[in-house]
Amino acid sequence: MEFIEEYRDKKIVGALAESIRKRSVHDIVLMEVCGGHTMAVHKFGIKELLPSTIRLLSGPGCPVCVSGTGFIDSAIRLAGIPGNIIATYGDLVRVPGSSSTLEKERAEGADIRVVYSVLDSIRIAHENPDHHIVFLGIGFETTAPATAAAILKARTEGLTNFSVLSSHKIMPPVMESLIDEGVKIDGYIAPGHVSAITGVEMYRNIAEKYRMGVVVSGFEPVDILQTILMLVSQFEDHDPKVEIQYRRVVKPKGNPIARELIGKVFITGDDWWRGIGMIPGSGLKIRPEFSSYDAERRFDLPHIPNKEPAGCICGEVLKGLKTPLDCGLFSAICTPVQPVGACMVSAEGTCATYYRYRKTA
Amino acid sequence: MCLGIPAKIISLEGDLARVSIGGVEYTASISLLDDIRVGDFVIVHAGFAIEKVDPLEAMETMRLVQEIEAQSRKND
Q1: pTM of the entire structure?
Q2: In the beta sheet, which residues pair with residue A19?
Q3: A157 CB within 8 Å of a chain B CB
Q4: Which residues have CB under 8 Å from A324's CB, separation 6+?
Q5: What domains are there in chain A, each with its CATH number?
């Protein structure tokens, strides 16, 4: 397949790994922020190609994993209102709330439908004029413009039976908050598709204030290894900066149409990250002028506090402080079939990734 | 939910496109992009094309990494 196979070329992968081994002298810790990168690192056995000087940590970039129990509890409450249909991306249905999951509620009779795209929920709204459709808006800057586009489409089409429960989040505040909390990182492998939307200006503060390299990476083995080589070179030369490895997709200023849509529909506000807590300015709330599309306002939802499941170290895993292997629940009690924490639910979650690839890793 | 995949544009209809991912066809919204043509590659993410894949930049990246590979063969 074009733009995939050539980035998996064994000879190039081997040469990049060798260049990294030659270039890396001092110990360095790199964090891959994005769940897609975590998956790729394990799927392609990237860690096995690296010298012992380089440690890779997995970060908080799996949107399903960082959705708080309060968000799931709110979704369950909305699902219980007669006449409501919940539309959601698939992974979310199995994420534990404080006492149930959307999957269990569906088995009890709630109308919860898995959609591939937010536009499917607009279609469901047209097909079910006597019902109200609530789309569960999760994800970072990559899915937020799609949700924004759907809200604008609903308004243009005069659709009144559609709203969004937004838990959309943005990346830079959590990336800075991890450094502020003292997680030891020397460089970020920055998310490729988030950056395709946002551009890279938002990372400048990390490079300048924290003196840390940030390289925006693609998702194939050649991409990730080239990114690691760039970060190692910056580190050895004491020259931290923002660079783009994934140039075939990411432009310095991002996607202007998508950025404008996010700004039009959303405003930043404080948001809760599962296992990490409240991070100021890290969430995308629906602007007051679109309040009829905001499920929280429309159904006057009370604030539901967030609780972490007992024994789950998902928060420390998301911060890169521990690995799933440090968790007493991992693979004994917590499995992809019976997940306790959100990191085990999503295919991109660090625990699920470890579970799937540990036999080959 | 969050994986973006390169897809080839097969046909266009208003804000929507038929795209091919490894020979399998899907529908994707192209409302986040300007000037999309049949034959372009885009990254599709949760049903939306979020950015075009630039073939010239892709070639430039391949040229860079192939140079590294050639260099390492020379050193062997």
Answers
A1: 0.93
A2: none
A3: no
A4: A317, A330, A343, A350, A351, A354, A355
A5: 69-170+256-298 (3.40.50.11740)
Helix (H) or strand (E) holding B68: helix B55-75
Q: Smallest Cβ distance to B51: which of A16, A196, A261?
A: A196
Partner-chain residue, chosen from B45, B65, B68, that has the shortest CB–CB distance to A193? B45
Q: Tell whether the torsion through CA atoms of A167, A173, A177 and A179 is positive or negative.
A: positive
pLDDT tens-place string over residues A9-45: 999 999 999 999 999 999 999 999 998 999 999 999 9
**pLDDT above 50 for A275:** yes
Smallest Cα distance from A278 to chain B, Å? 23
The architecture in CATH of the region B5-75 reads: Roll (2.30)
* Single-letter code of the amino acid located at A112: I
- Angle at the Cα of A171 from the Cα atoms of A217 and A42, rounded to 5 degrees: 45
- Rounded CA-CA distance A277/A263 in Å is 25
User: Is the backbone of residue A218 left (phi > 0), alpha (psi -120 to 50) or beta?
Assistant: beta
In sequence order, the 6+-apart residues with CB closer than 8 A to the CB of A293 are A151, A154, A155, A162, A163, A164, A286
| Tokens read off for A165 | 């429960």
* Chain segment A223-256, per-residue pLDDT in tens: 999 999 999 999 999 999 999 999 999 999 999 9
Helices (H), ranges, A82-220: 102-107, 118-127, 144-156, 171-180, 192-198, 204-209
